[in-house]
Amino acid sequence: MALVKKGATTEAKLVIQKKLYHTDLSSGHNRLSIPFNDIENDFLTEEEKQYLLGQDEKKKKLVKTVPPSLEVETVKLCRWDMPKKSRKTSTYVIRGSWNAIVKSNKLRFNRTAQLWGFRVDRELCFALMKVTRNHAA
């Protein structure tokens, strides 16, 4: 994989394992949500967290992503803060090329996926895996 051969890499950390919902797969939504409460391991630097802070749609981070097809896509990572009655909930979302990833990798409703984060030459990258009954594929 050219992405990994290019430079020094860090060990991958599981960001989230989740069942895919309709909004994760809908072409109209074109996003994968990563709710803060469901994040398994911290995957952003403090500088990246500060950069993504706020509602400004222009504050996005381009991240190379390796899906099961191994066709590297560049996605946009954003942070959304949503006010609720008693508190504010926050989520990261992957946008941009997400619809292409859904289509080319045949992602399906109610199936489980894992998103892993790693770094190549200090730049954040993602690997997406489909989880079958007993293992990731």
Quick tags:
137 residues; alpha+beta; At1g16640 B3 domain; 7-stranded mixed beta sheet; 16% helix; globular
Word description of this protein:
The protein is an alpha+beta fold and 137 residues long. The protein has one domain (2-131): At1g16640 B3 domain (Beta Barrel). It is built from 4 helices and 7 strands; from the N terminus they run H-E-H-E-H-E-E-E-H-E-E. A 7-stranded mixed sheet has the order 1-6-7-3-4-5-2. The longest helix is centred in the middle third of the chain and has 7 residues, at 46-52. The mean pLDDT is 89. Keywords: DNA-binding, Nucleus, Transcription, Transcription regulation. InterPro entries: At2g31720-like, DNA-bd_pseudobarrel_sf. It is found in: Nucleus. Pfam families: At2g31720-like.
Write the layout of secondary structure elements.
Layout: H1 2-5, E1 13-19, H2 22-25, E2 32-35, H3 46-52, E3 61-66, E4 73-83, E5 88-96, H4 98-104, E6 112-120, E7 123-131
Parallel strand pairs: 3-7
Antiparallel strand pairs: 1-6, 2-5, 3-4, 4-5, 6-7
Care to give the gist of this entry?
Helix content is 16%, strand content 40%. It is an alpha+beta fold and 137 residues long. The chain has a single domain (2-131), classed as Beta Barrel (At1g16640 B3 domain), CATH 2.40.330.
- What characteristic shape results from the CA principal axes? globular
The H/E string reads HEHEHEEEHEE
Note the main sheet: 7 strands, mixed
Write down the overall mean pLDDT.
Answer: 89
Query: Strand order, biggest sheet?
Result: 1-6-7-3-4-5-2
What's the tally of helices? 4
Number of spatially distinct domains: 1
Subcellular location: Nucleus
GO molecular function: DNA binding
InterPro entries: At2g31720-like (IPR005508), DNA-bd_pseudobarrel_sf (IPR015300)
Keywords: DNA-binding, Nucleus, Transcription, Transcription regulation
